[in-house]
Structures are given as structure tokens and as C-alpha cells.
Design goal:
The protein has 464 residues and is of the alpha/beta class. It is 57% helix and 9% strand. It is built from 21 helices and 8 strands.
């Protein structure tokens, strides 16, 4: 995501390397490269020009100010501020008032509406402690209702559907009545998509919106379609005046034009972004965090928030006690791998850590990297998993045969595990170095994470 844009912007800032201060000449050169980077990312030329004109104006105002700051760093700061502004300034609010609150999902066929509906239901259930109901109103695509049913089963959220009724307005109203009767406080209505913007589609979604009076109408956009996504979003907004945009498939080969252009063009905020097919790959859109990631500065606050969601505090305390007694075993290691997997795509996670995005951009980081380790551990007996000290040559041979790996690979893994175990035990004895999980209270990392997350939340409240 945004790799190409990040590289090009980095090149633009390099034009200022070696300069002692900002001048009209080096500003013009840098701004020209920034404009090229934006256009290459499929940002409309007019938007790119307006953006760089603003950057140039602000940079020129800094010619004789802050001489202690390097020109490149100052330009990064100006571009960061403008990127945040271009994408909306701050995270948009989300209306969940009413009993039930109604959320209407619209978009083109293939944009990921149905999958997003499931992700949003899970997000509201897990993070907002809501009791959502999914309503299947796509009466044209036969597999759509079944797909929503499968997703509902996966996330343990009920789905209201009528296989024989072909009137989406009636289904939506009956779905809301069903939610009221069964104490569901959120209704998410998944509507039909089309292959292109057509009058029949617009009329139908307009009728549904008028009938159900939703708290939120969200337009789902496939970010891989770039500027076309922005044009489609504008056409929809002109007709149904939706409340916000959802960008899907941000983990694909997307150049970022839609994310950067949509707020400027449509005037409606991006509310959520989706990366991947898994149900837990949905994030609230924060313009400041996205700008930071585009400029290669990471997004440590989102990283901490993901960790806080996955790591259990009580479990972290138990783990800390085991580490202090040097009793960390293969079962504990498996548990930690599982929690890391839940946090999402490995390369995406590493890109959130400042400085790591540049180090990993050319690396092929396989999300199945833990499979080999898990295969080794699953080939052990329960007794061996709980007692790493039992390992001997005959046991290693049996494990190697069970997981299809060589003795050398088994020895290498065991050696690395032993080194990690000793290091964790040693660190646990150092003052102030509790080994609790990042999201728990057991360790320094957890305290820092909570502090940073708290600061971010207070800032967001002040902005609102």
C-alpha cells in the first residue's frame, strides 16, 4: 500500500539533501517532484497542483525561519500537514444513536460491500460492544444472500434474509422490525451492487434510504480502481448524499489516488479502510496516521491499539511469572504466535513501526513464516511441549520425521528458542523490565503503549 508513492516522495525530499536552507529554487524543484509523485499515484492533476501550490506557498514562508531544522525535514513536516488536511484532517465521527441505529451500505458490484458489512458488524460487536443484525437486501445476485449468511456464521452475528421476497425496501423495513423485536441495537443493510452506475440502481438505493432513514449511509469503494473510484463516488453522492466512504483492498496493488483524492472531490470523509479478506482487517480511518505511513514514519499508535485488542491482561501476568521462573515453554510460544497472527498481515504490522517500512519494503515477508515453527511444535508430545529440557537426539529424530524437516532445522529452532528463553528470563530480572504483553499492564511496553494510546485519544477528543 502506497509503496510507490512513498518512494517517489522520498526522492523528492532527497533533492533538498545537502542544502543549508530552503530557497525558492530548491523548493520549486522539490515541489515539482512531489507533484509528479502524486500524479503517478493516480491523483487528479488539478488536485495535485492545488496541493503542491499550497506546499510551495508554506515552504516559501519558512525560508528565513527555523534555520536549525534541516530543509528536508521541514519539507516533510509541511507535506505531512497538507496530506492530513487533504484526507480530512481528523477521524470522522460515526453515528450510532437510536434503537436500533441503521447503517446502509452502498457501492458497485465487486467493491467488497458484503465482506465489509460483515467486517463492520464484527468491529461494532467487538470494539463497541453492540449487538448487530445483518440484513440481506441484494435480491439480484443469488450468491449474495448465502455469502452474507456464511459471513454471519463466521463472526457469530445473525442475518435477516427472505429468499422469496424480491422487494429490497420491504426486506430492509422487516429487518429493522426484526431487530427491534430481538433487541439488536445496530442494523447493517447490505444492498445490491451493479457493474456500473445506472438509473435503476440509483432509484433503488434512494428508495431504501428514504424508507429506512439510516443513521449512516456508507459508500464502499475498491481503492484499486484509483481515480475511477473517485468519479464513481461523486456520481453516487450527487444522487444519495451519503455520509462517508469506505476504502477496501488497500492491501492490494493500489497507488493511493483514491485515498488522497476522495475527500477533496466529494467532500465526504473516509470513515473506514479495509485490508484483506479476514474479518478482523478493518480500521477506522485516521488521516494523520495514514499520512505518517505514506511518508515512511510508521503508525505506532495503531500498532499499540491492535496489540491492546489481542493481548489478554491476565494471560500476560501468568506469562510474566513463568518467564521469571524460566518456565516459558513451547505451549506459551504457540500462544504468542497466535496472538501475533490475530494482529494482521506481518508486513503491514512492520510498516507501522517507525523506520521498519524502509527496511522491509524489498523483503518478501511471508504471512506463513510461522508455519514451519508451528509444524515442529505440533510434532512434539504434550509432555515435550511443556518441558523443553526433555529434548534429546531420539526425540529430535521423531519430531523431524513428523514435521518433514531435517535434524539440522530442528536443532536450529531449539537453539534459537533456548536463546530467546534465556534472554527473556534475564530481562525479567532487570528493574522496570516486566515482560508483560504489549497490551497488558505487566510490562514497560504495555505501559508505554497505553500511555501513547491515551495521548492519541485525548488529542482526538480535543479536536472534536
Amino acid at each position: 500500500m502506497f509503496d510507490s508513492l512513498s518512494d517517489r516522495l522520498e526522492g523528492a525530499f532527497k533533492t533538498l539533501k545537502g542544502e543549508s536552507k530552503l530557497t525558492e529554487i530548491n523548493i520549486a524543484q522539490s515541489v515539482k517532484e512531489i507533484r509528479r509523485a502524486l500524479v503517478a499515484a493516480d491523483v487528479n492533476y488539478k488536485i495535485a497542483k492545488d496541493f503542491t501550490d499550497t506546499v510551495k506557498e508554506k515552504a516559501l514562508g519558512q525560508e528565513n525561519v527555523l534555520s536549525s531544522v534541516k530543509p528536508g525535514e521541514l519539507m516533510v513536516k509541511i507535506v505531512n500537514d497538507e496530506l492530513v488536511s487533504l484526507m480530512g484532517g481528523e477521524a470522522a465521527s460515526f453515528d450510532l444513536k437510536g434503537k436500533p441505529s441503521v447503517i446502509l451500505i452502498a457501492g458497485l458490484q465487486g467493491s467488497g460491500k458484503t465482506t465489509f458489512s460483515g467486517k463492520l458488524a464484527r468491529h461494532l460487536k467487538v470494539n463497541n460492544k453492540k449487538s448487530p443484525l445483518l440484513v440481506a437486501c441484494d435480491v439480484y445476485r443469488p450468491a449474495a444472500i448465502n455469502q452474507l449468511g456464511v459471513i454471519g456464521d463466521q463472526i457469530k452475528v445473525p442475518v435477516y434474509k427472505e429468499m422469496e421476497n424480491k422487494n429490497p425496501v420491504e426486506i430492509a423495513l422487516k429487518g429493522i422490525a426484526h431487530a427491534q423485536a430481538h433487541s439488536h441495537d445496530v442494523v447493517i443493510i447490505d444492498t445490491a451492487g451493479r457493474l456500473s452506475v445506472d438509473e435503476e440502481m440509483m432509484e433503488e438505493i434512494s428508495n431504501i434510504k428514504e424508507a429506512v432513514q439510516p443513521n449512516e449511509t456508507l459508500f464502499v469503494v475498491d481503492s484499486m480502481t484509483g481515480q475511477d473510484a473517485v468519479n464513481t463516488a461523486k456520481a453516487f453522492n450527487d444522487r444519495i448524499d451519503y455520509d462517508g466512504v469506505v476504502l477496501t483492498k488497500l492491501d492490494g496493488d493500489t497507488r493511493g489516488g483514491a485515498a488522497l483524492s476522495i475527500k477533496y472531490t466529494v467532500g465526504k470523509p473516509i470513515k473506514f479502510v479495509s485490508t484483506g479478506e479476514k474479518m478482523d482487517t478493518l480500521d477506522v480511518f485516521h488521516p494523520d496516521r495514514m499520512a505518517s505511513r505514506i511518508l515512511g514514519m510508521g503508525d505506532i499508535i495503531s500498532f499499540v491499539e491492535r496489540a491492546e485488542q489481542q493481548f489478554d491482561e491476565e494471560q500476560a501476568k501468568k506469562l510474566e511469572k513463568k518467564i521469571k521462573k524460566n518456565k516459558f515453554d513451547f505451549n506459551d510460544f504457540l500462544e504468542q504466535i497466535g496472538q501475533i497472527r490475530k494482529m494482521g498481515d506481518l508486513k503491514s504490522l512492520m510498516s507501522m513501526i517507525p523506520g521498519m517500512s524502509k527496511m522491509t519494503k524489498n523483503l518478501d515477508i511471508d504471512n506463513n513464516a510461522f508455519n514451519k515453527v508451528e509444524a515442529i511444535i505440533f510434532s512434539m508430545t504434550p509432555q515435550e511441549r511443556a518441558n523443553p529440557e526433555l529434548m534429546n537426539t531420539s526425540r529430535k529424530r521423531r519430531i523431524a520425521g513428523g514435521c518433514g524437516q531435517s535434524i539440522e532445522e530442528i536443532n536450529m529452532f531449539l537453539k534459537q528458542f533456548d536463546q530467546m528463553r534465556k534472554m527473556m528470563h534475564k530481562m525479567s530480572k532487570m528493574p522496570g523490565m516486566g515482560m508483560g504483553a504489549p497490551g497488558g499492564k505487566g510490562g514497560t511496553a504495555g505501559k508505554r503503549g497505553k500511555k501513547m494510546g491515551g495521548i492519541a485519544r485525548r488529542r482526538a477528543k480535543r479536536k472534536r
